[in-house]
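Annual report, structural modelling task.

Input specification for the S-adenosylmethionine complex:
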Amino acid sequence: MENIIYSDFIKPCESENYIIEHFFVPVEYIDDDNHIMSVGSYIKLLYKHVPNKIIMSTTEYEIDTNNDFAHEAYGDVLIGGLGLGVVLLLLRENIDVKHVTVIEKEREIIDLVWRQLQLDSRFNIIHGDCFYYTPNKKFDCMYFDIWEEICASNCIEMELLNQKYTQFLKSTTGFISHWVEAECYELADSHGGCPYCQSKRRHKNNKRELGARQKIAEV
Ligand SMILES: C[S@@+](CC[C@H](N)C(=O)[O-])C[C@H]1O[C@@H](n2cnc3c(N)ncnc32)[C@H](O)[C@@H]1O
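The model returned the following structure:
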């Protein structure tokens, strides 16, 4: 897939609750999760009313983790969560992808991002919540990226989404995947499967102090 220059698509802008900013990393560094931040320009989408509340960014880690699905996808694709549209720009390069439906909960994020992506007619967006949305067709593959942190408790929502959407897969070879699901399940396993208990304390212990997305908020 070609090297996408995200800043060619997404310009700085803001709405009542969200802001999209460009930022520059002057010196390469490796964060506490061993993710490289190379020198260069990046974009971040933030929630305005909570300090450093990053929703999405265009760091290497984000692009790599969204790229896995973008490579594997084919046919009719369902995406949960628009964010900055990183996965959509990657899917646009995949000629095996015939049609993409995106469900996004936040109207303001759709208004800020969707038009800027300049996607072709294979792509359409629905304003809705993927936990409540009922598709009117079946899909070859689906990808949900609705989380702000890597957290064991994400597995609960992944399981719910799997249960809800499996019936909307076209065939048994179709698949559903979620952003960094292996890491979330690993965290869950290492804490004795706590996502399925209701204890907030145990969930908090499972959470990394700062999720991968929050770490770059201060840059
Ligand atoms: C991390 S961003 C997605 C990043 C995206 N993969 C990309 O490539 O830029 C998460 C997005 O999911 C949306 N979201 C959160 N919960 C949702 C839900 N239940 N249904 C639909 N969208 C949701 C958020 O508003 C946000 O736009």
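Residues 55-56, 66, 80-87, 103-106, 109, 129-131, 145-146 surround S-adenosylmethionine (CB under 6 Å).
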